Amino acid sequence: MSQTAAVAAPDDGTQAPPVVIARSLSKVYGVDDSAVRALDGVSVEFARGHYTAIMGPSGSGKSTLMHCLAGLDTASSGTVHLGRTDITRLNDRQLTQLRRDRIGFIFQSFNLLPMLTAEQNILLPAQIAKRKVDRERFERLIDVVGLRDRLDHLPSKLSGGQQQRVAVARALLGAPEVVYADEPTGNLDSRSGAGVLSFLRDSARDMGQTIVMVTHDPMAASYADRVIFLRDGQLVDEVHAPTAETVSDRLLKLES
Amino acid sequence: MLRTTLAGLRMHKARLVTTALAIALGVMFVTGTQVFGDTLEEGYSTKVLGAADEYAAVAIPAWDEGAPADPEAPAPVLPADTLEQVRDLPEVAAAGGMTRGDAPLLDKDGRAVGSVPTIGMSVGPDTRFQPAEGSLPEGSGEVALATTSADATGYGVGDIVTVLDSEDERHEFTVSGLIDFGVDRELSYRGVVAFDEDTTREMTGAEGYSEIDARAAEGVTDAEVVRAVEGVTGSDTHVETGDAYGDRLAAAAGGDTQVLTVGLMLFALISVFVAAIVIYNTFAILVAQRQREMALLRCVGSARGQVFLSVLTEALVVGLVASAVGVAVGVGTGWAGFAFGGEALGADASQPLVVGVLPVVVGMTVGTVMALGAALLPAWRATRVPPLAALRTSATAQGLEKGIGWVRITVGAVLFLISGGIVFAATDGDRTGPTGMVLTTVAGLVCFVGVVVLSPLLVRAVVAAVSPAMRRIGVASMLAADNSRRSPKRAATAMIALTVGATLITGYAVVSASLKTTMDERLAEQFPADYRISASLDDPDAVVPQSAVDALEESDAIGTVVERRRTSTESDDASGDLAVRSYIGATLGEDIKSDAVSGSLTDMGPGKVAVSEEYAGGREAGDVLPLATEDGEQEYEIAAVLKDGGGMGGVTLAPQDFEKAFPDVDGAAGVLVDGAEDASAQQVRDAVYDAVADAPKVGVSSMAEMRAQFDDMLNIAFLAIAAMLGLAIIIAVFGIANTMALSVLERTRESAMLRALGLTRGQLRRMLSIEAVVLCLIGAGVGILLGIVFGWAAGTTALESMVFTLPVAQIAVFIGVAVAAGLLASVLPGRKAAGASITGALASE
Fold first, then answer.
1. Residue in B108, B100, B117, B194 with CA at minimum distance from that of residue B152
2. Separation in Å, CA of B806 to nearest CA in chain A
3. Rounded distance, CA A181 to CA A186, Å?
4. Contact by Cβ (8 Å): B58, B213
5. ipTM reported for the complex, 2 dp
6. Any stretches that span the bilayer, and where are they (chain B) (predicted)?
7. Is there a contact between A73 and B479 if contact means CB atoms under 8 Å apart?
8. Out of A96, A100, A114, whose CB is closest to B398?
9. Rounded to an integer, what distance in angstroms lies between the CA atom of residue B305 and that of residue B379?
10. Which residues are paired to B59 by β-bridges?
11. Kind of pairing, strands B170-179 and B142-146?
């Protein structure tokens, strides 16, 4: 959780120690004939301070992978480590505590509680965890995401981009070991999306925040340090320092 | 379209289960009440008919319908030779006569049972009555008791009982059997000791017959027998067929059944009303949630009317199914009610269940119409959904309902003002009695409409007031506070259902508690002693024997003994007899109190009188009151003019004056006894009972026992009413559970997000529990407030000089029940919310 350790060069993933390690991860839905292998023996590592995008065609298992990595869903076999914790061995209570204290989340929509103000939404995880809020970090975050004059607004009074920025601030406030983002710009226009994405990239670079993002948008993926590709539940490709073009090319190749 | 509706119903079964339950419970109450009433009525009839219809004719002394019964006149009888004449008639095969008189039965303490002597009655070989247990009495040593007398005394078959004859001599009898007179009110109330005819005449000194029953000879119709009997009995006798006689008695008992049924029906209507609120809310929420579905139907070409009909069809199907269940359960409830309560109400418990067509039809109709009626507004709203709504990303309302609603506030405030004005008018001044009661009821209804109008604002305001405190407690209660404010209209409707029950039950509790305090105070005023010994009621000139008074005065366990002497004279100032009394051994104003209009009881002394307002003729303390006495007209100075309605109506004289004015009155009509300070309650009781042991007909009543009896009565009434309203409250809790469940459904994604952020299952459940408890507490709180106000108003108008009492303990219980109801209502929704998989909920919409 400390940020002092997270100043590794973003481009050199091999030197930074991995925060999240998945080994031979499989997820099977249903039984026998109707069984579907959503994940089929995925092994992958996410280094500290790295911004990684998971891509793949629809049904490739990218969301399932993220859910298993985050402890939202249980894998059928294989292990996931967060730091030294094997999260596949945790019970529901321990998983809840893990999510609360060590993981941040950004979803595509329905991110915010409609009856809480922007500030209340940002502070919610800290309140759930009964954690003391790092006021300095809070102030810095809301300045960076540009929400200072919107803090006492209800979500219904914020634009889509503002709402997602509130969600990002909420995810980052507790300085979690890893932030999972599920299509964070899926509902946004390209300008608002770009704002959110560059902010995510900056927080990885400047604050050493580890980020794992699921997306189907090559443009969004190009903000990441690394892109991994899934097809039929298997890890099939990987690109470092991606651009929108390289990602699109790989995707097209995968789908053909 | 119908197929779509039915498919929708099948899919949303779970959502409608609680709605169906609410309907079913209401219908159950309606049908159950009717089945119970019908069975009870039939139970009464078979009981009477079973006894009376074997007789062709029943002859009883004619009675004058219009004239008030004179309790002191001897009951008219049929002459003794009438029976022989009837027996000699060729149309009559056999005839039996019934003799009646007084035969006081003594209880195990040796006291005469009840304040009116037990009826002594003959049950000969041709009697209408058959023993419920044991056999009919034979010979001079046996007696049969009415079951009510047996219950009151604890005697059973084979016990030895003591009965007084007309000379107050004691006679012992063996109880041969018990007879159930259930349907005849006088017989059940006074109790009966039944002997054979000779013993009855010996014991009661009764002459003639109070009833002659004749059986028809072969081939003779009942009507012919009646005519023949009428021929020998003359005009002062009423002769009718056994069937007609039975029907008449059953109808009289049936009147009671009707009162009971109407009372139960009132409570049933309350349940139905509450159920209607619950159904309305459910359909309103369902329509709101299915906005997109409705819009899609419109998109693919459904007309508005079709959407409207589809919602109504849904209500119709739910209403029909739930009503059918309700009717079935209602029949069972009616049966259970009769099985457990029928016997106590004096009906024949072996009566098979009577299920008429009417209760079934009424139950089905009430349930279905209620469901349809409640769905009308939501259905209309569904037609307002534009087809475009199908294309919107979020179909469900996520934000807060906005707007203060000035219209609401104005309308609500005006209604409150009107209601307050009516209450003021009803409780101010002399408008007590029926008018005041009606006004209070109207005010209550107006006020309730006001609460309904204001309730969304009320919910929001109350939650806003408590939310700062709730925020501080923890994240679960913080979220609950915010959730409660999200859809105040929905919350308010759910809450109102509970408010109805809470208002009624609190109102009744307030009336009951106030009644109790008032009665206790009146009792203490009219009954200023531990024990009251009174001469037997059946003889106005009876006195408490001097030996008993002497024994009391000598006893160590007895502190003070006050003799109350009484007579009556004529008054110029009011019609009717003027009661004149005097208390020997009492300090007026201390031992005996009564509220004075002018002067004071403590000023009483020789030459002075206290007089109640009615007989004062406008005089005040210090004036002179003339009084006709045995010693000629005397004049006394008025020491106090007393309020009417107290224990000292008429004129009260000082003992010396009374003795001089009415020298013939030499015994006490009543004696008030206080125990000595160092004597235990049991010692005082023993001393009192020992003193009057030789005078069994002298009545002994104890303040403590009377108070206990009165309290028992009030408590039983309260419990019965609470049980009836309990059903309405259960329905309301279903409604709250339903609202919670639908909210949870609506917030599936939100709950999943909270869980992802680290809210534990426990915290999520707690959040919903607190939400439900807050809702229940607001609903119950509003109800309790309304109940207190209108309980007070109703009590004040119903009972003059009512002492308002707040039933604090009961209200605390109601609040406890509200909390429990909230917890209960949130169990299933909480379980569902906490059990949902996070990823599944996040993926679905």
1. B108
2. 39
3. 11
4. yes
5. 0.82
6. 264-287, 307-333, 353-377, 406-426, 438-470, 491-511, 716-745, 772-794, 806-828
7. no
8. A114
9. 10
10. B212, B239
11. parallel
**DSSP of B160-178:** EEEEE-TT--EEEEEEEEE
Q: Residues B616-646: pLDDT tens digits? A: 878 888 888 888 888 788 888 888 888 876 6
Identify the closest residue of chain A to B477 by CA–CA distance: A128
pLDDT of B82-130, one tens digit each? 888 888 888 888 888 888 888 888 888 888 887 778 888 888 777 777 7
Q: Are residues B489 and B456 in contact, defined by beta-carbon separation less than 8 angstroms?
A: yes
pLDDT at residue B811, as a whole number: 92
- Cα separation, B227 vs B240, in Å, equals 9
Q: What six digits make up the tokens of B307?
A: 């959407």
Q: Which residues of B touch A155 (CB under 8 A)?
A: 399
* Cβ–Cβ under 8 Å, residues B621 and B641: yes
Choose, out of A29, A120, A124, A168, the residue to mutate when testing the contact with B (most B CBs < 10 Å): A124
Share of chain B above pLDDT 90, in %: 5
Answer whether residue A9 shows pLDDT above 70. no
Alpha-carbon dihedral of residues B6, B837, B751, B499, nearest 10 degrees? 50
Question: Is the model's pTM score more than 0.80?
Answer: no
Residues of A in contact with B760 (CB under 8 A): 93, 96-97
Residues of B with CB below 8 A from A128's CB? Answer: 475, 754, 757-759, 763
What is the set of domains in chain A, with CATH numbers?
18-255 (3.40.50.300)
**Is the CB of A154 inside 8 Å of chain B's CB atoms?**
yes
Answer yes or no: do B757 and A101 touch at CB < 8 A.
no
Residues in contact with B405: Cβ distance below 8 Å, sequence separation at least 6, in sequence order: B456, B457
Each residue's pLDDT tens digit, B271-290:
888 888 888 888 888 887 77
Among B134, B556, B245, B400, smallest CA distance to A155 is for B400
Q: SS3 of A223, please?
A: coil
Q: Which residues contact A136 (CB under 8 A, 6 or more apart)?
A: none
Three-state SS at B123: coil
CB contact under 8 A, B842 and A72: yes
CB-based contact (8 Å) between A107 and chain B?
Answer: yes
Answer whether A30 touches B (CB < 8 Å): no
**Cβ of residue A100 closer than 8 Å to a chain B Cβ:** yes
Interface residue A99 vs chain B (CB under 8 A) = yes
Other residues' Cβ atoms within 10 Å of the Cβ of residue B619: 16
**Cβ–Cβ < 8 Å for A160, A188:** yes
* Token code pair at residue B710: 């009165």
> Is A97's CB within 8 Å of B754's CB?
no
Beta-carbon pairs below 8 A across chains A and B: 77
From residue B167, give the alpha-carbon distance in Å to each of B203, B420, B536, B695.
Answer: 9, 63, 14, 12
Q: Which of B794, B524, B800 is nearest to B644 (CA)?
A: B800
Q: Does residue A229 contact residue A236 with C-beta atoms inside 8 Å?
A: yes
Token reading at B87 = 């027996």
Asked whether the beta carbons of B241 and B57 are under 8 A apart, the reply is: yes
* Minimal CA separation from A170 to chain B, in Å: 10
Report the distance separating Cα B558 and Cα B241, nearest Å: 58
Spatial distance between the Cα atoms of B128 and B97, rounded to a whole number of angstroms: 10
CB distance from A114 to chain B under 8 Å?
A: yes
CB atoms under 10 Å from CB of B572, counted, come to 10
| Residues of chain B contacting A114 with CB distance shorter than 8 Å | 398-400, 486, 750
How far apart are the C-alpha atoms of B304 and B249, rounded to whole Å?
60
Contact predicate B239/B226, CB 8 Å: yes
Q: Pick from B79, B88, B32: which is nearest to B59 by CA? A: B79
Q: Distance between CA atoms of B249 and B253, rounded to whole angstroms?
A: 6
Q: In this complex, do B838 and A101 lie within 8 Å of one another by their Cβ atoms?
A: no
Residue type for position B734: F
Residue B538 has pLDDT above 90, yes or no: no
